[in-house]
Design brief:
Blueprint (H helix, E strand, L loop, with lengths): L1 H15 L3 H20 L13 H24 L4 H30 L1
């Protein structure tokens, strides 16, 4: 998704080049505000039924949209996309692997 966002952003760059820094700021501010707003919700609203395929599908789309917007920001800021994608992929892989390991250990310890 960051690559697709980068391609879209590169196409829009010529159109919005005068305002690119403001667009990048706005896109990142929207993502940051969304994250802050969601962290302030009461605990009851943050419960997710991980066995509901509809909810998992919607969460995957929401995550992908965030990655798409970040990719557009990379294009506007003229970030080297291949390095960014490589770092995002490695970080995601390592954190997912660590989460699986921690989850397995916690499951063994706490049932």
């Amino acid at each position: 998704m960051p690559l697709i966002g980068w391609i879209v952003g590169a196409g829009l760059e010529k159109i919005i080049s005068k305002y690119d820094h403001w667009v990048a700021f706005l896109l990142l501010a929207i993502i940051g505000s969304k994250m802050i707003f969601e962290s302030l919700k009461p605990v009851e609203e943050n419960k997710i039924d991980i066995y509901n395929l509809k909810i998992l599908f919607l969460l995957s789309i929401a995550t992908s949209i965030d990655a798409l917007v970040v990719g557009m920001t990379f294009a506007i800021l003229q970030i080297k996309i291949w390095l960014a994608i490589l770092l995002i992929g490695i970080t995601t892989f390592l954190l997912s692997l660590a989460s699986l390991y921690i989850g397995k250990k916690c499951g063994e310890s706490f049932g």
